[in-house]
Amino acid sequence: MAESGRRSAEYKSKVTWYVFTCWIFAAFGGLMFGYDIGISGGVTGMDDFLMKFFPKIYERRLHAHEDNYCKFDDQLLQLFTSSLYLAALVASFFASRVCTVLGRRPTILMASMFFIGGAVLCALAEAKWMLILGRILFGVGVGFGNEAVPLFLSEIAPVHRRGAVNILFQLFVTIGIFIANLINYATSTVHPNGWRISLGLAAVPGSILLIGSLIITETPPSLVERGRSEEGKQALKRIRGVDDVEDEFQQIVAGCEEAKRFQNPWKNLLSKSSFPALFIGNTIQIFQQFTGINAIMFYAPVLFQTLGFRSDASLMSSLIIGLVNVLSTFVSITFVDKFGRRKLLLQASVQMFISQVSIGAILLTHLKPTGSLEKSMAGVVVLLVCSFVMSFAWSWGPMGWLIPTEIYPIETRAAGFAVAVSTNMMFTFLIAQAFLSMMCHMKAYIFFFFSAWIVAMGLFAYFLLPETKGIPIEHVEERVWKVHPVWSKFFKDD
């Protein structure tokens, strides 16, 4: 490829075919995650799947008099979706240790192997315990992948492209969701084992990630941190496509030397100077989930059936939403290093708030406990959901993974990001486990619930979130935290 990259204010680099290949292969960890998000909602809406594992729910949804908002309310059905995220929560802490001791690349390899195992077990499932165990293996794979891949992408990206490169992870998440919706749409007519095909095909992105993990390089910071400085320098030359990497390499070495003063990164996370990054990294994960996005993406087919769409029509609507999700992520890739992180987050907060409030208002006034929405009104709801997904896809979706990789120094980066990943998985689990029950009890007001959170998110981004655009990770403490009007006081004793 050998395309000359624009020189950053700090270091020289150009984009080569090799580094581009590393970005793409690693980003398949995101596709793995996205495929699971998309596939589970479609599978739980398939009659064959429900008849085999959840016959009571299948019978319940056949009754026309059943409350629209409550016909899918079942804790075991929700556990099928949410068990993955509980497993990922626990796995992310082990993944942090593996990332630190063995490196980013072996962690990515392990993620792919767990995910393939989960796909095989779910596809062959004959009992609920096999399903749940398969989901747990999926979860361990997601925990390892979501820990290692964003770190990997941020650490091998040149500073002036770091935002765009890291967002490849989220782009591939959206592609995974879209592919899953496409497969669900096709397999919904394959009886009685269409759901097995949907779940089993998760092994494909897992296998590509496994192959990729054998091809990609280890990141220079990880190599230097583990005492392999010469390998780290050669890796830096390879991913930068130039021989003159001395300035950047010395910054990495200095950062790793500083990190050696801290024997216990977990203990250092509790220090006063670590609080700003810990607070921002975890709060943005909580807010990402309380936009309501995963409630929509997990259960889009179920949601549209609740609104009166037929099963095939609901899957088609999910397919449209998935395509919007993919295309909108390119907006973030294009503009994140031009406009910065905060502007995208603030704009999207306004658009997401309007979309959620409008959906809630329509359902409150037009959807009764029985019956369905008028066709024209149902179409408006789909458009509003697309508007919501669109704004999320260029803001809180990718920024939730990008920003936590940029705000920690090397000594606490893997540990801090592990806490961020586990927080994300914890709240993803809570939303996945509770959404159908919340929809049953709160009805249309659930959209107003998420709207209130979006207001809080906008205020958070405006007052507390620092801008990290174009700042080398090694300089983030000096150029971000120590000059921020709120967070600088945490560094006055330094």
UniProtKB/TrEMBL annotation:
<feature type="transmembrane region" description="Helical">
    <location>
        <begin position="132"/>
        <end position="153"/>
    </location>
</feature>
<feature type="transmembrane region" description="Helical">
    <location>
        <begin position="76"/>
        <end position="95"/>
    </location>
</feature>
<keyword id="KW-0813">Transport</keyword>
<dbReference type="GO" id="GO:0015145">
    <property type="term" value="F:monosaccharide transmembrane transporter activity"/>
</dbReference>
<dbReference type="Pfam" id="PF00083">
    <property type="entry name" value="Sugar_tr"/>
</dbReference>
<dbReference type="InterPro" id="IPR005829">
    <property type="entry name" value="Sugar_transporter_CS"/>
</dbReference>
<keyword id="KW-0762">Sugar transport</keyword>
<feature type="domain" description="Major facilitator superfamily (MFS) profile">
    <location>
        <begin position="22"/>
        <end position="469"/>
    </location>
</feature>
<feature type="transmembrane region" description="Helical">
    <location>
        <begin position="414"/>
        <end position="432"/>
    </location>
</feature>
<comment type="similarity">
    <text>Belongs to the major facilitator superfamily. Sugar transporter (TC 2.A.1.1) family.</text>
</comment>
<feature type="transmembrane region" description="Helical">
    <location>
        <begin position="107"/>
        <end position="126"/>
    </location>
</feature>
<keyword id="KW-1133">Transmembrane helix</keyword>
<dbReference type="InterPro" id="IPR020846">
    <property type="entry name" value="MFS_dom"/>
</dbReference>
<dbReference type="InterPro" id="IPR036259">
    <property type="entry name" value="MFS_trans_sf"/>
</dbReference>
<protein>
    <recommendedName>
        <fullName>Major facilitator superfamily (MFS) profile domain-containing protein</fullName>
    </recommendedName>
</protein>
<dbReference type="InterPro" id="IPR045262">
    <property type="entry name" value="STP/PLT_plant"/>
</dbReference>
<feature type="transmembrane region" description="Helical">
    <location>
        <begin position="195"/>
        <end position="216"/>
    </location>
</feature>
<feature type="transmembrane region" description="Helical">
    <location>
        <begin position="376"/>
        <end position="394"/>
    </location>
</feature>
<feature type="transmembrane region" description="Helical">
    <location>
        <begin position="444"/>
        <end position="465"/>
    </location>
</feature>
<keyword id="KW-0769">Symport</keyword>
<feature type="transmembrane region" description="Helical">
    <location>
        <begin position="165"/>
        <end position="183"/>
    </location>
</feature>
<dbReference type="GO" id="GO:0016020">
    <property type="term" value="C:membrane"/>
</dbReference>
<dbReference type="InterPro" id="IPR003663">
    <property type="entry name" value="Sugar/inositol_transpt"/>
</dbReference>
<comment type="similarity">
    <text>Belongs to the major facilitator superfamily. Phosphate:H(+) symporter (TC 2.A.1.9) family.</text>
</comment>
<dbReference type="GO" id="GO:0015293">
    <property type="term" value="F:symporter activity"/>
</dbReference>
<dbReference type="InterPro" id="IPR005828">
    <property type="entry name" value="MFS_sugar_transport-like"/>
</dbReference>
<feature type="transmembrane region" description="Helical">
    <location>
        <begin position="313"/>
        <end position="333"/>
    </location>
</feature>
<dbReference type="InterPro" id="IPR044778">
    <property type="entry name" value="MFS_STP/MST-like_plant"/>
</dbReference>
<keyword id="KW-0812">Transmembrane</keyword>
<keyword id="KW-0472">Membrane</keyword>
<feature type="transmembrane region" description="Helical">
    <location>
        <begin position="15"/>
        <end position="35"/>
    </location>
</feature>
